# Entry
Amino acid sequence: DAEDLASFHEHLNKSTRVLALLGAGLSASSGLPTFRGAGGLWRTHDSVSLATPEAFNTDSSLVWQFYSYRRHMALQVQPNPAHYALAKLARKMPGFQALSQNVDGLSQRADHPPGQLQLLHGTLFEVRCMDRGRCGHSETNFVLQAKQQSKDLDISDVKVPLASVKTHDLPVCPKCKQYLLRPGVVWFGESLPEQVLDNVDKFMDAGGVDMIMVIGTSAKVYPAAGYIEDARAKGARVCVVNMDENDRPAGGWKKGDWFFKGDAATLVPRLLEPVIGRVEP
Ligand code: APR
Ligand code: ZN
# Structure
């Protein structure tokens, strides 16, 4: 309500070191599915057979199809006003860092400064060699060629037993020529990219945190969700933007926290207005 908005704006105007933990809800009104809400990807698809290293070993083709499908979907939609507002905040506030769980590339397409966007779970728009340690080859904007996609695999009905193509149809690393290329995203059970972990640690070590905005995320997946408590420990107040008033961050609710219920695409530009100015409606 107006009082909350005023107190939030007052705090924002005094803040110089701000974090934002971004989730699928940020991209929902761009037209991409979330994971756990209605129509969420983990409601219609089985994350264990699609988003784990074991899944890739079991059926690389299925996993490749799933990520190619998600990449294709991401390219069909546009960034929304919240992506642009956060990018503008980054340009106006050097002490702002976005910690994004999203792999959809929409923040990047909204010209979010890359130095202020930590891709906690990687991106659909990069592929890398299975052998991260020794080979480490990676490339961006790789497109799985049609010929490599198995004909009889209908991604929309992933539960159907699949006649997956043999792995020789799938892209092999052009550098070491030994391992398959894999989507450059973080799967369940995998650690976050070293460089990203370092960047966030550096930010946390550089001083206190005035605020962490928790935008469009159920904050259930760790270590990403752990950054909320880390920020609190550095003095941050928490501002949740979520469609669902029940989705509060783990670690409970503290006095002085804000909760703004609604669509991120509408709320985020309004919340950031004092710093980024009026954005065209
Ligand atoms: N505006 C704001 N919030 C929204 C909107 C919207 N338009 N639509 C949905 N939400 C909220 C939902 O209420 C929910 O709290 O966004 C959140 C989406 O939660 P999830 O579907 O769990 O997505 P996310 O939190 O990003 O998942 C985290 O889990 O599967 C892994 O790696 C994957 O990065 C993902 C991680
Ligand atoms: Zn390789």
Summary: The first strand starts at residue 18 and ends at 22. The chain has a mean pLDDT of 89. The pocket of adenosine-5-diphosphoribose (ligand 1) is lined by residues 23-25, 28-29, 34-37, 40, 101, 121, 216-218, 220-221, 241-244, 247, 263-264 (CB under 6 Å). Residues 208 and 234 are 5 Å apart (CA to CA).
